[in-house]
C-alpha cells in the first residue's frame, strides 16, 4: 500500500472511531480534528458508505454525521508506532498532586496484561527509553491544597464557592462553574465560568474552595484545549513590550539566550567594521533590559533607545564610584 492510500485508510478508520466515541460530529468538527478540508470529509464519507459502513448524515441545526447505534469497530491489534503513545511515562509529580498516581500505574498494568508477550516487552521497555520531565529548572513551591476539591467538582459538575486572592492582594468570593484544570509547568490553573464569562484562576491563589452541592450544565461546545491556547496567545499579546537595538561582540552571540534571561532575539543581518552584530532585543520592561545588557559588560553596546543608553551610563558610573571609594 503506498503512502497516500495508507494515510487515507488511517483517516477513514479515525473517522469511524471518532463517530463511535462522540456519537455525532459535524463535517467541520471532523475536518478540524483530522486537519483536512470539509470536501475531503465528504469524499471520505462517500467512500465509507460505498464500502458498506453504516454512516449517515442527520440534517438540521443540531445534525451531523452518525453511525447506526449497533455498529462497533473491532480493532484486533495495535500498530508498532501506536504502542509508545499508550505507555509513555506520565508526569508523576502532576499525577500525585491530583491524587491519580496509583490509579495511573494500575491502569497501565491492566492494559499491559491484554497485550501479547512480545508487544508487552516492548511496552515495558518504553519507560527506560523516554522520560518526560515537566519540572522547570527554577521550580517554585506553590500551595495547592484545594486541587482535590476542584477535581471532585469537575467530575460531578458541581458549582464551587471560591475565596480568591487577586494579583493586587484583594480577596474576593466567587461562585464558579469549574470547566477544567490546566498544568502549565509546575503551576496549576482553574478554568471556570462566572456569570456566563469564562475566566482563569491561579490555583495557588485560591484561599478556600467549598463544594456548593449544586450542579450546573457544562457548555456543550466548550473546548478546554482550544480555550487555553487562545487565551495564552491573548495573554502574550497583552504583555508589555520594551524594544532595544544593540551591537554585540560575535563572541557572545551564542550566549544571548542564556538561562535566567529570555528576551526575544532577532538578528538584523548587519555588522560593522569590527564585525559586531546588530541585534534587536524585546523585553517586557526597562529594568529587565538594564540587567540583561549590563551583564555582558563591554561586549554589548546600546544603540536605541537613547534613554536606556543614558540610564546604563549613569548606573555604570554609580557602580564604579561605589567600588572606587573602597
Compact description:
This is YafY family transcriptional regulator. Helix content is 39%, strand content 25%.
Question: Secondary-structure map with pairings?
Answer:
Layout: H1 3-22, E1 24-25, H2 27-34, H3 38-50, E2 55-58, E3 64-67, H4 83-87, H5 92-98, H6 101-113, H7 117-125, H8 147-156, E4 158-165, E5 171-184, E6 187-194, E7 197-202, E8 206-215, H9 224-238, E9 242-248, E10 264-271, E11 277-283, H10 286-294, E12 300-304, H11 306-324
Antiparallel strand pairs: 1-3, 2-3, 4-5, 4-8, 5-6, 6-7, 9-11, 9-12, 10-11
What descriptors fit this protein?
326 residues, alpha+beta, SH3 type barrels, 4 domains, five-stranded antiparallel sheet, four-stranded antiparallel sheet, 11 helices
* Global Rg: 27 Å
Separation of the first and last Cα atoms: 80 Å
Return the average pLDDT rounded to an integer: 84
Strands in their spatial order, largest beta sheet: 7-6-5-4-8
Q: Report the major sheet.
A: 5 strands, antiparallel
CATH class of the largest domain: Mainly Beta
- SS strand fraction: 25-35%
Judging from the principal axes of the Cα atoms, what is the shape? extended
Number of strands: 12
Poorly predicted runs are: none
Helix content class: 25-40%
How many separate domains? 4
| Helix-and-strand structural type | alpha+beta
CATH topology of the largest domain: SH3 type barrels
Individual helix count: 11
- Oligomeric status: single chain
Order of helices and strands: HEHHEEHHHHHEEEEEHEEEHEH
Structural description of this entry:
This protein has 326 residues and is α+β, with helices and mostly antiparallel strands. The protein has four domains: 3-67, Winged helix-like DNA-binding domain superfamily/Winged helix DNA-binding domain (Arc Repressor Mutant, subunit A), CATH 1.10.10; 83-128, no CATH class; 147-238, SH3 type barrels, CATH 2.30.30.520; 242-324, Alpha-Beta Plaits, CATH 3.30.70. It has helices at 3-22, 27-34, 38-50, 83-87, 92-98, 101-113, 117-125, 147-156, 224-238, 286-294, 306-324; strands spanning 24-25, 55-58, 64-67, 158-165, 171-184, 187-194, 197-202, 206-215, 242-248, 264-271, 277-283, 300-304. The protein has a five-stranded antiparallel beta sheet with strand order 7-6-5-4-8, covered by helices on one side. It is extended.
Amino acid at each position: 500500500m503506498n503512502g497516500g492510500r495508507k494515510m487515507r485508510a488511517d483517516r477513514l478508520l479515525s473517522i469511524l472511531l471518532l463517530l463511535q466515541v462522540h456519537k455525532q460530529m459535524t463535517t467541520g468538527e471532523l475536518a478540524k480534528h483530522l486537519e483536512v478540508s470539509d470536501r475531503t470529509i465528504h469524499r471520505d464519507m462517500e467512500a465509507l458508505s460505498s464500502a458498506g459502513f453504516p454512516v449517515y448524515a442527520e440534517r438540521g441545526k443540531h445534525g451531523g454525521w452518525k453511525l447506526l447505534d449497533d455498529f462497533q469497530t473491532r480493532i484486533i491489534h495495535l500498530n508498532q508506532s501506536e504502542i509508545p503513545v499508550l505507555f509513555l511515562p506520565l508526569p508523576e509529580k502532576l499525577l500525585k498532586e491530583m491524587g491519580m498516581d496509583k490509579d495511573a500505574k494500575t491502569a497501565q498494568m491492566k492494559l499491559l496484561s491484554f497485550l501479547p508477550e512480545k508487544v508487552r516487552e516492548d511496552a515495558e521497555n518504553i519507560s527506560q527509553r523516554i522520560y518526560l520531565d515537566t519540572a522547570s529548572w527554577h521550580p517554585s513551591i506553590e500551595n495547592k491544597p484545594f486541587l482535590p476539591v476542584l477535581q471532585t467538582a469537575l467530575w460531578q459538575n458541581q458549582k464551587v464557592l471560591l475565596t480568591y486572592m487577586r494579583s493586587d492582594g484583594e480577596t474576593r468570593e466567587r461562585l464558579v462553574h469549574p470547566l477544567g484544570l490546566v498544568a502549565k509547568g509546575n503551576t496549576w490553573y482553574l478554568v471556570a465560568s462566572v456569570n456566563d464569562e469564562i475566566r482563569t484562576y491561579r490555583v495557588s491563589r485560591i484561599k478556600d474552595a467549598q463544594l456548593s452541592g449544586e450542579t450546573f450544565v457544562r457548555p456543550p461546545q466548550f473546548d478546554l484545549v482550544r480555550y487555553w491556547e487562545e487565551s495564552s496567545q491573548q495573554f502574550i499579546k497583552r504583555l508589555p513590550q520594551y524594544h532595544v537595538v544593540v551591537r554585540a561582540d560575535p563572541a557572545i552571540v551564542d550566549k544571548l539566550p542564556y538561562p535566567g534571561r529570555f528576551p526575544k532575539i532577532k538578528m538584523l543581518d548587519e555588522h560593522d567594521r569590527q564585525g559586531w552584530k546588530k541585534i534587536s532585543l524585546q523585553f517586557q520592561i526597562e529594568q529587565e533590559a538594564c540587567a540583561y545588557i549590563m551583564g555582558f559588560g563591554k561586549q554589548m553596546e546600546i544603540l536605541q533607545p537613547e534613554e536606556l543608553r543614558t540610564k546604563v551610563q549613569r548606573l555604570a558610573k554609580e557602580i564604579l564610584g561605589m567600588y572606587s571609594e573602597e
